[in-house]
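Issue 218. Parser rejects a valid record. Input:
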Amino acid sequence: MQKYAIDVVQWGQRHKFFHVECLSNKFQINLHVCHTNPVIKHIRTNNTKVYRQEHLLSKLYQKLGFSNSIDLENFGLIDQFHRKAANLILSDTIYSVGNSYEICKQATNQKKIIHEQISCTVDLAILKNKYEGRSININNLLTREQFVFENASLIVCPSTSVERYVRNIAPDSQTTIVPYIVKRSPNVSIKGGHLKTIIYVGRLEKSKGVDILYQVAKRFPEINFNFIGDDNSDLQYTRNVKLHGKLASGSVLEAMRNSDLLLFPSRSEGSATVANEAMGNLLPAIISEQSGSNYEHEKTGYLFDVNRKDVVEEICGYITNIRNDAKILNRMSQHLHHSIFQYDEKSYISNISTAIDRC
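Output the parser choked on:
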């Protein structure tokens, strides 16, 4: 049997397997996926460096369907998939995306396990319990996370917020930051001029900071606020707020091109996709530290701690600064134009390869 340099184990749909294509530039890959994962078609079938194993799960799983099988309260199917994958490892190095509990339990001490932590899972569960009335077992989640962080050879984090989360749970864990790719949108121009339109993209709910959005929009009736995403709140928005509902990706990018500023006060993200899309459109942002973005404070945007009591005042202060100085948006957009190359595909391949090699 051909020797593979690395086994990649992925249950979910993260990256649409683009990272696998990147890794295959350097490694022979034995890829483990669920047989009904709807995005495995994105993997090029002519890539001879990727051997794909599609693991067949239970008939019950097939009845449930892929989209209904991932839950913070029930890991039965996820664990079943990882146990199957662990028994068919072909290399000495395992790269596991998003959930590595069973991989860490099943793999021998001779295996190097690189775990990619894609979100702050426990923090997200706490928010769901608080704002959505869920009753997720936090201790169970915390136990699973701690076990993975303490037993994996290396934890790959997409942002400083995720790395901080990992270190808070397992202070002695080995971590490294590998930012996700930022794709420059075609035909995008540098922002500048007066602040007229602010955009938000995401579900309108408490965990995403909809209460903060509501209060900020009330303070600036002369600014247009475009909110894109499903509205799960019961708020009565002011006239300057336009609700667009959930839009297709192309429409979202077009809306970004027609906006002056992104406002994103999410209370927990791993590395918010909307932030990377905004950066690719050279769009400055006022964004929470918890969003896991690559924005730099006072260079490409303004960052804030969403848990501060005076967070609304802080955000309003940043908006006032921008309104009083028409050069700020242009300066930030220019900086994005000159700096996002460090998050391109070439940089990602280099960073992820270095992370694997260091093990």
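Fixed in the parser; the record now loads. DSSP finds 13 helices and 13 strands in the chain.
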